[in-house]
Every structure is written in structure tokens, then in C-alpha cells.
Amino acid sequence: MLIKTNHSGFVHPVSSEITSAEVYQSRRELLRLMATGAAGAALATWAGRDALAQGAVTRPGKLASLNATPSALSGGMALDKLTSYQDATSYNNFYEFGTDKADPAQNAHTLVTSPWTVEIEGLVKKPGKWALEDLLKLSAQEERIYRMRCVEGWSMVLPWVGYSLAELIKRVEPLGSAKYVEFVTLADKKTMPYVGSRVLDWPYVEGLRMDEALNPLTLLTFGMYGEVLPKQNGAPVRLVTPWKYGFKSAKSIVKIRFTETQPGTAWNKAARNEYGFFSNVNPAVDHPRWSQASERRIGEDGLFAKKRKTLMFNGYEAQVAQMYAGMDLKKFY
Ligand code: MTE
């Protein structure tokens, strides 16, 4: 399925469409086979695909400086079962490595994550380059279990490791004029095969309003499942903003820039009417082409699994709703 973007009528595929078409096709195929009595064979193929995926993941292991303690910020609500490590690391969006969900796990091994620096620039008193090792030591790390809801209609529950981005922000002392924070991610044609493709504007950039960036839930993330982030999940450092759709959580960050004006963001540039700046999870605001009222939890996606109801702000209403008091969330989607 294709959509038109603002770029002079250039046509590109949108991930959600690829996914739903895929799922739709395989379900259709299964129904067709059921009708012809060949469903057994089809189910065997599904199981085989799973088995194939089981072998694909090499775990990066622990990092000495990654020393997380459980965080109070993952509590406060009934927690759902964790998504399996296997699913979390083999069903990804990381367009620098391909548009298919399986591509990042296959292709991201070329990403070079050491040495790594994150540059702080723009409206701050203390700009400069931070080596990853120093960033890791800036604050005590916590393990936070967060729901992740993707704009495409699926969700996961993941144990991330990191600390609140606010810790870093306080350290670099933003000026009073800094109203937004922009996250610029790596765009290296040599190691990222899809950078240069016309699917998105590179580098992949994201942004938050200053109060969102300072919200304690916003996690500067270095690991998951107690280990270093796998490359396909945005090693060595990414963002996680659990009350927003997953695409706000920029992976493999190289620059954090403080600005007065709202930064452009990758998906907003690609399809302005579909992906807004705020992108808060909101079951009452449909995507122009599909409803956001429910979601499919990865790992519960058997043929007859029921969809779950999507929660306002992805279940984090108590912690974040006050930041949007009085705002028309249909307009500021
Ligand atoms: N960051 C970069 N640099 N490039 C991307 O393509 N995809 C986003 C986000 N961060 C993306 C990115 C999208 S669409 C989602 S849903 C999440 O990463 C997926 O994170 P996960 O693969 O760890 O679940």
C-alpha cells in the first residue's frame, strides 16, 4: 500500500501499511487454506517461521557500567506480562536498516556503537560532547517496565534500563529561551543501508516540548532486559517516551539540541496530516486511515487473540495529563 507525501508527489510505503497488508494477506491465505482443508500445513508454516525466528537473536550481554535497580516509575498500575526478548528484538522499526519488521534484526549488525558520543548543542549554558561512558555514569540507572504502543496498532511491554532524561537536561543547564528538545540520530550511509533511500528524510529526528523532556517518565535508555541495548533496538542510546506512540522514541542518538522553535520530526515531514508533533497515545483520536481505539499485543497474536483497548496516554494519564490541560488533543495530535 502506498501513500503520497508532501515531497512533490513522491510515493513511498508506510510501515503500518506494510504490516497490515502482510498480516491481512497471511490471514486471508490461512482462511483460504482452511476452506480447502489444507490449514494444517499452513499452521505448520507459521510455527516454522516462529522457530526460525527463535534462533536469530544473539544477546549483547551485560555491561559493567549498566547497573540498574528496579524503579518506582514502572509501578503504579497493573502491569501486563513482559513481551518476550525474542519478540522485542526481532520485530522492530528502525528504518535505517530496512522497512520490514525483520530487517533491523537482520541488518543492524553493521552499526558501530563504540566509540560513541552525544553532542549537546543549542540553547544551553553547557554545550559539549559527551562520551557514552560518561553519559552512562551521569546518574544511577533504573529498570523501568513500560508499555510501548506503536502507531501501527501493536504494543509490547518492555523492561528498559536508563535514567530520566531530566538528569542530563539539568546538568547542561538550558537557557530560558529553550522551549523544545530535538533528538538527532545517526545517519551513516556506510553502516546503515537504508540511509539515502527516499523512504524518510535523514537523519531520523524527533522532538519533545521542554516539559515533556523533563517529565520523569522520559527515559534516556541504554539497555533492556538488564543488558546492553541490542543494535536493532537503538544501541547504544535511545529515548523512550511511553505515553507517546513508539516513533517518538528516537534510536541511536548522536545529538540533543535545545531550541526555541518546535523542531521538525521525521514522520511529520513524511506525512504531516498523519503524524503530528505530539503523537500522544489517544484512543479517541483516530489516525486518518485507521482507528487507534484498540491494539494487538505482540506475543498474543494467535489467530483468534482478542485485541486490547488502548488506554489514554497509554495508561500514563496520572503522570502526564496535566502537561496537556486545556489543549485540544484532536488539533494537537
Ligand atoms: N529511531 C530511528 N533512528 N529510526 C527509526 O526508524 N523507528 C521508530 C522508533 N525510533 C525509528 C526510531 C518507531 S516507528 C518505533 S515503533 C520504535 O522506534 C520501535 O522501537 P523498537 O524496535 O525498539 O520496538
Write a brief structural summary:
The protein is of the alpha+beta class.
Report on the structure:
By secondary structure, the protein is of the alpha+beta class. It has helices at residues 15-35, 39-54, 85-90, 103-107, 132-137, 165-172, 210-214, 266-270, 317-320, and strands at residues 2-4, 11-13, 69-70, 117-122, 128-131, 142-149, 154-164, 180-185, 205-209, 219-224, 227-228, 238-240, 253-259, 294-297, 308-309. Helices cover 23% and strands 22% of the residues. Strands 3, 6, 7, 10, 11, 12, 14 and 15 form an 8-stranded mixed beta sheet that branches. The longest helix has 21 residues, at 15-35. The model is unreliable at 1-56 (pLDDT under 50). The structure holds ligand MTE. The site of ligand MTE has 17 residues, from loops.
